[in-house]
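Internal ticket - ligand job 257, hexanoyl-coenzyme A:
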Amino acid sequence: AAYETILVETRGAVGLVTLNRPKALNALNARLIGELGDAIQAFEADEAIGAVVIAGGEKAFAAGADITEMASKSFTDVYFADLGGAWGRLVACRKPRIAAVSGYALGGGAELAQMCDVVIASETAKFGQPEITLGIIPGFGGTQRLTRAIGKAKAMDLILTGRMMDAEEAERSGLVSRVVPGDRLLDEALSAAAKIASFSRAAVLAAKEAVEVAHETGLSEGVRFERRAFQALFATEDQKEGMVAFVEKRKPAFRNR
Ligand code: HXC
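stdout (structure tokens):
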């Protein structure tokens, strides 16, 4: 596919999408959101891919939804365009997504990071929900995912004041998985993704799904889900291979069976 706003490549079993509207600090316009959805959907369908990395530029991961595109829209424009729903294909991807965040991750850009399973940030990363300063509120899930990630007190602070938090505060708060030096960011994200992709695909998908259930249900329901998913993995050849390899003191060769 010919993409205009993103760069797409594969590194072994890892799919890499780089947001590529540097002049607009990777502002997320409708075209970019659509292309990102297409690329993620293609990686989801590609059996050779086990995990995906979403990266931006050095100055900005993404500075939010494209304000110039939104500025003149009416209620019905926004209602029928359903930009939020356009993220459905990304969120539906069962393979793990790792965000590699350098510089600004604001508004929709912060929300894109929140839609990823692992967030690796460079020391320069800045997260914020400045929508309030524009007369709107987060619209790609920020009021919900940010609150679940960092709790009500901090989410209210960020969403109501529009202030930014740096990488260190974001990690301390639970939004960011790891902070790394800027020159290590992409390598760290790619190697985490390669590590994930090297494991049994069924186990990886089940692990991700079970953690997601923790976000959406109560404890006893979640524990019941985990138990069934755990038990089901004993139907895979990869479970036998993983455990036999441990006993035989060798590296497992998972075959996604
Ligand atoms: C469109 C944007 C943009 C955006 C930056 N640009 N952010 N264009 N939409 N979200 C453009 C600028 O207009 C400028 O274009 C170029 O990128 C460089 O940006 P500067 O502002 O000149 O850079 P700098 O002074 O370094 O400031 C960086 C910044 C600032 C602090 C990140 O750009 C900024 O505040 N951006 C807006 C952040 C924001 O409010 N995001 C939330 C959007 S609402 P030119 O042509 O002048 O060079 C949102 C809602 C999501 O995300 C839900 C919707 C359903």
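Auto-summary: DSSP finds twelve helices and ten strands in the chain. The longest helix spans residues 30-45.
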